[in-house]
Amino acid sequence: MSGHAGEHHGDEATLRLGTGAADLARAADLLTAGLLVGLPTETVYGLAVRADDPDAVARLYAAKGRPADNPLIVHVASVAGLEAVTTHLTPLAVRLLEHFAPGPLTVVLEAHPDLPSIVTAGLGTVAVRIPDHPVALEVLRRCGLPLAAPSANRSGRPSPTCAAHVHDDLDGRIAAVVDGGATRLGLESTVVDARGPAPVILREGAVSREDLIGFDVRTLPDLHATPSGPTGPTAPTAPHAPGTRHPHYIPGLPLHVAAAGSGAATARALLAERGEGSGTAGRIGLVTCGDPGADLDGLGPAIELLATPSDADALAAELFALLRRAEGHGLAALVIEAVPEDGIGRAVMDRIRRAAQAPQFP
Ligand code: TXA
Ligand code: MG
Known about the structure:
This protein is of the alpha/beta class and 362 residues long. The chain has helices spanning 21-32, 54-64, 91-100, 134-143, 163-170, 209-215, 221-225, 263-274, 312-327, 345-357; strands at residues 15-17, 37-39, 46-50, 73-75, 105-110, 125-129, 147-148, 176-178, 190-193, 200-203, 255-258, 284-287, 303-307, 333-337.
């Protein structure tokens, strides 16, 4: 690679790496040199950068087009690695990590004074997690550094669940992407504030509220008392991660949310609105969940059944890829059926609603 580590602009194609030892060593070397590397985790692909280098982190914000007020999640390989990112490891955080790490739970703690403020967007707190993926863990161990890693999409786009998505969004803007195949969970980690006596959910994610309640009822009086509903921690007045304020998961076509079982009817109504026979440009994509039933019979060529995930977990794994795939099909709109808002369904519906409300790309 030519030039200074900080000069990776759009003129060089992004290197595609595999998961063999030599390629992971290369990824670790690039990261150590302050470059940006896409890495698979169990949730979504992350765009990693060494967290101790403010200039490198600034290049990451630029590559993603990320607003400066949206802090990054720092990834470490073990609980011992947390020492570099926080001086206040709370008893609650220890217990949460004992139970959920490595895995898709991110804890927010007081930031270590040495951590560059660009990582935390000046909040004074740091979000940190231990990813449950052999590639991410191996690269973290080889670097021996905490790695900041937001989802590896252009800011506002659906999160990437395979290396091709990273490439589509960031080719030429990052040094490399490690192709570890499709991610297992497909939805981002749950972010909880772990500074107090009980976790406060700041972003719904792959660890459900029920998982958090179930792990130890005694330590979680607040969550346990308000498992759901308008007074629960996801009520509009509840605290949110800064990133949840920004438009997110923007698909390249309008998205409509239909009630469970009424996706086909919603798609038909949209077609009727647009006028019959408007050709390929007028076709509607449809995603149903669970048993599609007789309502799908005779959909006709104007409605394209894109996927029929069996349950909310399956939809979670497929959702972001589906949003991207629908863009490539020349569809006028996409209809997705809602799933029940419990377990992973809460995070799935959070992402679908955000995608449906987001302004469309031209
Ligand atoms: O699963 C994941 O979490 C993936 C993988 C790559 O680890 N990462 C991810 O990062 O989704 P990102 O940047 O797309 O989302 C991070 C979220 C944002 O909503 C951000 O505002 C929030 O975490 N966050 C980061 N630091 C925070 C802090 N100190 N306090 C509150 N929220 C924070
Ligand atoms: Mg993101």
